[in-house]
Amino acid sequence: MDTIAYNTTKLVPQWLNKGDNAWQLISTTLVSIQSMPGLVILYGSIVKKKWAVNSAFMALYAYASCFIVWVLIAHKMAFGDRLLPFWGRAGVAIDKDYLINRAYIPASAGGNTDSPMTKPFYPMATLVYFEFAYAAITLILLAGSVLGRMNIKAWMAFAPLWLVLSYTVGAFSLWGGGFLYQWGVIDYSGGYVIHVSSGTAGFVAAYWVGPRLKCDRDRFSPNNILLMLTGAGLLWAGWTGFNGGSPYAANIVAPLAILNTHIAAATSLLTWTGLDVFFFGKPSIIGAVQGMITGLVCITPGAGLVQGWAAILMGVLGGSIPWFTMMVLHKKSVLLQKVDDTLAVFHTHTVAGVLGGILTGFLADKDLCNMMLPGDEYGVVYGGGMMQIVKQIAGALFVIGWNIVITTAICFVIKYFIPLRMSDEQLMIGDDAAHGEEAYSLWGDGDKYDATRQTTIINTEEMQTSNITAARGVTVQL
C-alpha cells in the first residue's frame, strides 16, 4: 500500500502545541454537548408533554442558527479588531488563511500596543469553534424563559438578532479587549458574558412575549423527570469543558478550575436540597437541579481564580441566595410575579451570575490572578481593595442595562412583523399546532381527541388479541 507523505513542518508549525489544541477541542465538544443534546433533552422533558417538541426545537434551532451567524459575522464582532470600546469590527471567520494561522485575542480596545495579547498555541479555527460553543449555549439558556408560548417564527428571527446585537457586545467588552476588560472587570468564564446576559435577556423577552395560559402557569409538570435528569447530568458534566477550557491551554489552572466547578455545584445542590427539606418537608428533584445550576453559574466568574475553600463558600451562597430570591422574594415582588419566566432563568442565571461576579471580586486569589489576568486585579480578601467590587458591580450593571435595551428593541421590531406569542388556541394545543408533531404517542394535554379513531384502534387491538389467544388455545374475557 502506498504511503501518503505529509509536510509535517507545515502541518505542525513550531508554535502549535498539540496538547493544548487537543484539550481545547475536547473542551469545546463538552460545551457543545451541554447544548446538543444536553439542554435539548432538559428542555424537552422539563415542560408539559404538549410542549416537548417545541421546547427541544427552540434549543436545536438556536444551536444551528448561531453556528452560521457566528462564523459569518459574530466571531469577529466579539474577538476581532476594535470598532467601538464595546464592540469589534464585523467580518467572516471562514477563510482558510485566517483559520489555520495562530489564534489570538486582542487585549487592547484602545490601540495601546503595549497591552498584552492572548495568543494560544493552536490555530484560529480551534478558537472560533470554542467561542461558538459559548455563544450557542447562551442563546439556549435564554430560551428557557420563554418556553411554552413564544411563536416559533418569532424565535427564529430573535435568536440571530440577539446574538449579533447583544452577545457580541458583552463578549468583546469583557473578553475581546473591550473597555471592561481594560478597566479590570473579572469574568473568568462567562458569569457575566453568558449567564447574566442570558438571564436578563430571557426575563425581558418573557415580559414582552407575555405569559403562558393560566392553566399552564398553575400546573406545568415535567413530562419525564428521569429524562430531565439525563439532560441535567450532561449539563453538569459538560461544565468541565466550560470552565476547564477558559485558560485557553491545558495548563495548571485548567484542572483547578474544573475541581472548583464541581465542588461548587455539589455544595450548591446540597444547600438547595437542604433548604427544601427544612422549609417544605421533602426534597425536590427539580429543586436539586436548580441548585446544581446556580452553583455552576456562581463559580463560573472565578472558577480558575479562587481556592477550594472559596469554591465551597460560593457553592453555599450560590445554593441559598438564588433559593431565597426564587422561593421567597419572587412571591412578594409584583414585577417578578408579573413576568412569566418559565424556567426561572432570571434567578438561576442573572442572580447567581451577579452573585458569582461579586464574590470573585472578594475571593479571587492574588497568585492565580497574576497567572491568568493581564492587569493587577485580585480579590479584596487578598488586599485587592474595594475598588474591585465597584468594578464587578459596574460590569454587571452594564451587561444588564445593555440587554434590557437591546432585547426590548429586538422584540419591538419583530413584533411589528410577527406576533411574539402564539394565539390562545395554539397554546391550548401545543406542539401539534406549532409543528404538527408530538413527542409521545399518548393522549393527554394538547391532543385533539378523535373518538372514532380511538374506537377503531381499540376494536382492532381486541381482534388481534382474540386471534392470538385463540391460536394458543386460551380463552380471554374482553
From TrEMBL:
Membrane spanning residue stretches: 22-44, 51-73, 121-143, 155-180, 192-210, 222-242, 248-272, 284-303, 309-330, 342-364, 393-418
**What's an example Gene Ontology biological process for this entry?**
ammonium transmembrane transport
Segments forming domain Ammonium transporter AmtB-like = 22-440
Gene Ontology molecular function? ammonium channel activity
Q: Where in the cell is it found?
A: Cell membrane; Membrane
Domain of life from the UniProt record: Eukaryota
Gene3D superfamilies attached to this UniProt entry: Ammonium transporter AmtB like domains
- GO CC, any one term: plasma membrane
Topology relative to the lipid bilayer, per the entry, is: Multi-pass membrane protein
The principal localisation class reads membrane
Q: Which family does it belong to?
A: Belongs to the ammonia transporter channel (TC 1.A.11.2) family.
Q: What does this protein do?
A: Involved in ammonium transport.
Q: Which NCBIfam families does this entry report, sorted A to Z?
A: amt
Record's protein name: Ammonium transporter
Q: What is the lineage of its organism?
A: Eukaryota, Viridiplantae, Streptophyta, Embryophyta, Tracheophyta
